[in-house]
Predict the structure.
Amino acid sequence: MDFTLSKEQAFIQKMVRDFTESEVKPIAAETDRTCEYPRENIEKLFDCGVMGMCVPKEYGGAGADDLSSALAIEELSKVCASTGDIVATHNGLCCDPILRNGTEEQKKKYLWMLTQGHKVGAFALTEPNAGSDASKGTTTARLEGDHYVLNGSKIFITNGYVADVAVVFAMTNPAKGTRGISAFIVESSFPGYSVGKHEEKLGLHGSPTAELVFEDCIVPKENLLGQEGKGFKIAMQTLDGGRIGIAAQALGITEGAMEEAITYTKNRSQFGKPIARFQNTQFTFADMKVAVEAGRLLTYQAAARKMAGQPFTMEAAMAKLFTSENAMKYTVKAVQMFGGYGYTKDFPVERMLRDAKITEIYEGTSEVQRIVISSNMALK
Ligand SMILES: Cc1cc2nc3c(=O)[nH]c(=O)nc-3n(C[C@H](O)[C@H](O)[C@H](O)COP(=O)(O)OP(=O)(O)OC[C@H]3O[C@@H](n4cnc5c(N)ncnc54)[C@H](O)[C@@H]3O)c2cc1C
């Protein structure tokens, strides 16, 4: 498999890298401190076509491929995992399911809003009692004439309190189990839609996480996404693709921490020489480098398979599992290399360590990834 970037992919990578250096890096620590959604930068990412970048040009997007989206998320996450997360959710979890399952009318209306219209997207599956086992959601959707009536709530929703459009999953026929789940495109302006609790989190402070509440929420019948009863399938397919984005995010965090640690250890001397000259430091960097390169291959492989229309469920799960566990492992090691300074907010590795943890949890925990991988191995 050849992962030499195409001209377009290399262009997008460089554009996002330059943007990250000039616009994201200067405010990353402040975004973390204030827990403020980086609105201005997200607007600029709309302007330069990164938000919704895989949407075809005819619907307002840049017509980029899945690897380009992963490259963009990786670059952003090297410096600010929150910004990477906002983009990953918008692109992978909101635009993607509409693109894959929407009617022509839905695509024309909503994909245009999610690109040229600068409207932010979300994906609402998790409920208080339905996390890893997402099939146990109790939010309902009842058809009444020309509209559905949604009741229930969703928690931990990324982009929750800024989203204008959300792909929401609800039971249209509880007796049918997962075959009774349907997906809907819901606008935040629909009657009965409200935002509940804003989460205070360990990390990812710039990413707005919130509860969404549906109280007799009126959703036009034409906003059913795909067919009735196909919602669970849409959710699982969407998460397969989304995991490539989280793998890219985790990869970016590890690369960011490695770059910070290299700079620091070259400049910090103890016992008469730079810490980077101690062999234990060098060996840690060697291990980090291997983890980054292997994680990159897994992540790009999953993206390449998705682009080629090949099955990629297991590849995406492997990429997410490997990169997220390494992000956690190596941000801890980066903090260690900084000594006491690494434990303070004077250097970004402290934030990177806190941000890394979520990559092992959302879009399926590491345990869930192991279930997905092993269940694809024909062990029974
Ligand atoms: C910051 C943040 C953003 C998020 N964004 C979104 C979003 O945009 N949209 C959305 O729908 N959801 C979102 N989520 C929800 C996220 O996907 C869930 O938190 C995650 O899937 C885990 O579910 P849970 O929290 O209910 O944990 P639980 O499912 O209760 O799991 C608790 C523990 O039990 C383990 N466990 C569960 N089942 C098994 C099993 N069968 N075998 C072994 N171990 C198991 C888990 O691995 C975990 O360690 C977000 C969460 C956070 C924290």
Q: What stands out?
A: The chain has a mean pLDDT of 97. Residues 89, 123-126, 131-132, 156-158, 201, 204, 209, 358, 361-365, 367-368 surround flavin-adenine dinucleotide (CB under 6 Å).
